[in-house]
């Protein structure tokens, strides 16, 4: 009995899918239709691409490894 109660939501969902009714289908179709009506924005300008790259700062595991190292890594491996 416990097993059937445990499986009840899964079985109910399977019955709905076998009946070819997809939960949320109407809402998804409404979202897709609403999204299509929006006009497209103008493409981004090339100004953003011309900016100089920021300084390469170690982050994440590289930052942790640098903090825990007793000596810094060789210059050839720092980039």
What does this structure look like?
The protein has a domain at 1-39. The protein has helices spanning 2-18, 25-36, 61-68. It is flat. The mean pLDDT is 77. It is mainly alpha-helical and 79 residues long. It has 3 helices and no strands.
Q: Could you name the key traits of this structure?
A:
0% strand, 79 residues, mainly alpha, flat
Beta-sheet strand percentage?
under 5%
Which consecutive residue ranges, at least 5 long each, have pLDDT under 50? none
Assembly type of the shown chains?
Answer: single chain
**H/I helix tally:** 3
The dominant shape is: flat
Concise account of the structure shown:
With 79 residues, this protein is mostly helical. It has helices at residues 2-18, 25-36, 61-68. It is flat, with a radius of gyration of 28 Å.
Element layout with pairings:
Layout: H1 2-18, H2 25-36, H3 61-68
């Amino acid at each position: 009995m416990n097993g059937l109660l445990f499986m009840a939501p899964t079985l109910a969902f399977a019955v709905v899918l076998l009946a070819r009714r997809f939960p949320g289908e109407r809402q998804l179709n409404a979202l897709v239709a609403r999204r299509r009506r929006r006009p497209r924005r103008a493409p981004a300008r090339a100004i953003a691409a011309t900016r100089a790259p920021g300084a390469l700062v170690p982050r994440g595991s590289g930052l942790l490894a640098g903090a825990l190292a007793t000596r810094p890594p060789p210059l050839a491996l720092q980039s």
